Amino acid sequence: MALLQQRKQEIISDYQVHETDTGSSDVQVAMLTERINKLSLHLRTNKKDHASRMGLLKMIGQRKRLLAYINKRNPENYRALITRLGIRG
Prior knowledge:
The protein is built from four helices and no strands. By secondary structure, it is mainly α. The chain has a domain at 30-89: Helix Hairpins. Helix content is 75%, strand content 0%.
């Protein structure tokens, strides 16, 4: 479930730290969250798609590691990011 180029640009412009930023941790977490949400919808209708389920679990693990890194470097930014993305209740 790849993201469209236009949607990627919207995410990058919303979460970038500076004008030329395309790969900061915040942007990566936002992109992973978007992909996780799309894949979760796919798996609700295709329950037997185990390959995609494994990919989803890998993405969730990657996002968890990135969030731990952000929390360690800047806890205020971490709290703002998870609130903005609507993750971790």
